[in-house]
Queue: 2 jobs
Job 1
Amino acid sequence: MDRIKTEELTGAEIVVRCLQAEGVEYVFGYPGGAVLWIYDELFKQDKVRHVLVRHEQGAAHAADGYSRSSNKVGVCLVTSGPGVTNAVTGIATAYMDSIPMVILTGQVPTHAIGEDAFQECDTVGITRPCVKHNFLVRDVKDLAATIKKAFHIATTGRPGPVLVDIPKDVTVNKCEFVYPETVSMRSYAPVKKGHSGQIKKAAQLILEAKRPMIYTGGGVVLSNASRQLTELVRTLGFPVTNTLMGLGAYPATDKQFLGMPGMHGTYQTNMAMQHCDVLIAIGARFDDRVIGNPEHFAQNPRKIIHVDIDPSSISKRVKVDIPIVGNVADVLDELLKMLKGSKTQDISAWWKQIEEWRAKDCLKYDRKAKIIKPQFVLEKLYEVTGGEAIVTSDVGQHQMWAAQFYKFDQPRRWINSGGLGTMGFGLPAAMGAMLANPGATVACVTGESSIQMCLQELSTCKQYRLPIKIVNLNNKYMGMVRQWQQFFHGNRYSESYMDALPDFVKLAEGYGHHGLQIDKPADVEPALREAFKRKNDLIFLDFLTDQAENVYPMVPGGKGITEMILSEDL
Amino acid sequence: MRHIISILVENEAGALSRISNMFSARAYNIESLTVAPTEDASMSRMTVVTQGSDDVIEKITKQLNKLVEVVKVVDLSEAEHIERELMLIKVRAGAKEREDMKRMADIFRGRVIDVSDNTYTIELTGEGAKLDAFIKALDQGTIIETVRTGASGIGRGNRILRT
């Protein structure tokens, strides 16, 4: 038989060739014993660029931020044992928010697996619950096909991180290299198109709605369906909300946008979610932070349409009437076609009600305060950046304020850990976002507690000249913990005060960056303007903010979404 | 309610733990689980017996279907099906118990598959309830060791589960 002779490559060469074939620009990683051969091959080429982080958690978050801000696959490479365990937080973060990532991990040689070898851990076992899928490659002959599958699985259906564990001997062994063009797996065939009959039923229900509400989540961003969503909302004239994960999918400055829903959602949104007669849920999963107590939510009867690519998200927490399993963009295309020329009900009474709720101005805060209000910093950040920045955040009060006060008009601009709620996410995610969007304005909104969880990455920022603007809302407390303690634990601030804080300005300078501390409201805007003017520098802005400020509205855990604590109640 | 779920899954290392992990991670209950390759060695068939309301069973089948290695899932209890379980039970069978024990095995259509001076090992197949009944029928002091496989199930007639 005639056969084109292909070259024999080592496993390490194959790994790099696969990454090149996938068009991978950046690999975020940290070398170590088990991945030395792969690093050797990375060294010999310049197509795939490596970004050396300072801790493997940072590698996973950076790859994640890269993906969220660009719709490309985030790739990271770490060594066996502690390399992997350090990355687990980042992998779990990506998994909870369905971010397409491929994580390559070194493993001890196949003959040593199971013998408690140096830097051995059961990577596939440890990561199994927090990946979409994972593989252990035992034979170099399976390596290319496995990496191909990893990219395929990560990016199709409901996206997610996929891990490939590669023993060191597999990176040395040789075989012919052929990178498969397609993947066919009998056990994996995610749907794309929604069921036409179901979409038709949805269209009918939409046209009958008198108090409609459109509720969309991260799925709209992940399936790049902002255009379709915007068209749908405008065609129908219905009110719309985007969840924390879905912000930017519909322009926040538009008057049909009611603000975020949920635990720290706006009054008008939560009221509309509760009192609508038809709820159109698109790429959202009725998360506990969004609909609160499901029994309370069910007290008001309403018909629910739910579009989601993952059947297991449908009727998980809330029973829905018209489930549509499919890719959001495809389903919305079809729905828009069906709705063309149809007439909706007169919903002016509903809008009137919503405007009454909106008039409560639930996000108001004391603008005359002598100390810096964190909300004020975010409003100014929005103004100074013209709403054009990519904003990453850590987790806590600052995250909620950023979500409430920075009006995102476009998707993939708001990057935060919604599902897992990972402190330490913001800075490395900003690095990824910066690399994915050269020349973009990237701000990392953080707090003095969160920033310290991945602070070491300031060094990476220096090495790769990443001019991120760090907006540190420093209230010397784990603010959200403090807020819960104030509301629900009798003002007993157990371990939530951050004593012995570093001098963040000196710290930034220590890493070769610039820092600035701001303690007066009047200095907020000038400081931001100055920082964003310096396009090539990382600036660490340390805002000393009101220690007692709380995030409002707030739905206490386990309560219904209309059982809100408002700022005026206190 | 008790449900018996059949799963076709790629016969790959880790597939079993992926499935059992899913049950424990999401706090679903497993009463029994059996697994072995099918006529196609690249595929295994698994039978899981679980308890739960219809809602919970729906969630379980959806979560199973979501696993990348799972090819097909069916809730056998939705329609006519047959289930069988195998038990090997070692019982005391000294001179004075031998007769009775043999008779008891015959009544339940069990077979004595190993004999020693003072023991019998009996093989018994049937639905779980039949095996329970056999255990109950014995003088509890005579039971030395019990091994049960857990249920395996198959749909009746034209109801088939394959790729």
Job 2
Amino acid sequence: MSRSSPALAVEDLSVDIRGVTVLDHVSLAVSPGEALGLVGESGCGKSMTALAIMGLLPRGARVGGGSVRLLGQDLVGASEDALCKIRGGAVGMIFQEPGACLDPVMRIGRQIGESLRLHRGLTGAKQDAELRKLLVEVGLTDTERVTRAYPHELSGGMQQRAMIAMALAGEPVVLIADEPTTALDARIASQILDLLDTLRRERGLALLLISHDLAVIGGRCDRVMVMYAGRVVEVAPAAQVFADARHPYTAALIAASPGVAGVASKTLLRDIPGQLPAPGSTYEGCAFAERCALARPACTRRTPLWSALESGRGARCLQYEDGW
Amino acid sequence: MLEVTELLKMYRARGPGGAPFAAVDRVSFCIRAGETLGLVGESGCGKSTLSRCLMRLVEPTGGQVMFDGVDVRALSARALRAFRRRMQIVHQDPYSSLDPLMRIDRVLAAPLRYVLGLDACATEKRMVALLEEVGLNASHRLAYPHELSGGQRQRVAIARALSLNPEFIIADEPTSALDVSIQAQVLNLLLRLQRDHGLAMLFISHDISLVAHMSDRIAVMQSGRFVESAAAAEIVEQAQHPYTRTLLAARPHRPKRDATA
């Protein structure tokens, strides 16, 4: 794997909300043209990671340590003015509910036009030309109609395309897509993921693709990173993770998906019993231990450390440490 | 158990002089006891309208719905109320299908007391049994919906559906608001309940992998019509209709395994 300098590099980022740790030493790096998938269930810290990168932490949350570097520039502690330029500029972001992110009383053309003016100073005919180019690039080829449309006049898939166009308006180097297809039908979801795939290859975007469903994004990423209870528990090339997951949680997530080849219909799925520990709850050892099929007594006594494995992989599990 | 013939539901497009269109367009199917029919289609194809027509939450425009020999469309309002206990729905979003101000014990006690006429003691006993059957425990009856996770809420919704001992359950996108890990728990629960109670089920989703896993037979719906219906394995392996093939092609694919790995 070529190691070009990453567009986005997060190192040992910790976030707490009123003293409760919600992100614990999270590190990740995405290179230009690379797609990194960030996977885990609700509450594991994946959206918090995205918000922390953008400096959009909710009230009461603060960065306890670590750094977020965008093309080498540290964003932790950057001024609000600087962050405002970066959001929607060098870092584009799209979310789960495009309908909730678009302004319902503003025509699509004006919303995207505003980004073009704000981040690139384009106005008048130049703005119109760029707007049309962007709409075509995201597959909204009926540019006249879309430009004049209000968000509610577009389908969910078209709204998400408009969101992507708006994110592209600032000529981003990093695109963060947080559950971009969860609200969409399977066929439309697949089209949106195809679009993101094309964009990151053609524009050399560093893409951070966040989802609770490894099956949905696994095929669209170079590497996947799995989080559990605020920590990174596994990093692996996407091409290897399905057949050879190293963390029991990753393996359990894969097995819990219906539609895995070889599972007869109407047979019980291998579900993961229990649920994520509540933030702030105290437990000894590994956060996943009580749901883990492989857990041994040591797992509820010792907190697993990060174990670097071969070819850039790694996992946080005691089975890779001595004395398990 | 359930036999539906030429079911039709017409709506008029919005605005004055709006053209009438068929949301459900002469659909026929049957579901036997213990069997699951999977209904797959995209937003707006009419799958939820169809499920509502079966219970007459929406009045069908035409066609016939026979349930265990009863002509559902001919029932009087009073007879319909009594009939509905035999058919229950589990909705998509457990966040909006449970009243946020109603504690779980009230949610579950209401049908037991007012429909089945159980006394306080029997209600309590049955309620605990229901909670345990869906994988919760007695302490959950004292919780409000916001104190439960999405998966737990959906379990409550399933317990509520089961409380009247129905013979037929409609599961309308029951897991689309849930994480993959929790989705598997809820799907397993539905499969177990069906096995234990011999329930007939209509399982509705836009996700063909999900429907294929849960169903004996699958009907593919597009613009109000069934474009194809067959045994689950047959649909997955040898779909005939181009639309079914598009749905199958949109399933998530896994990356090809590295030759070097």
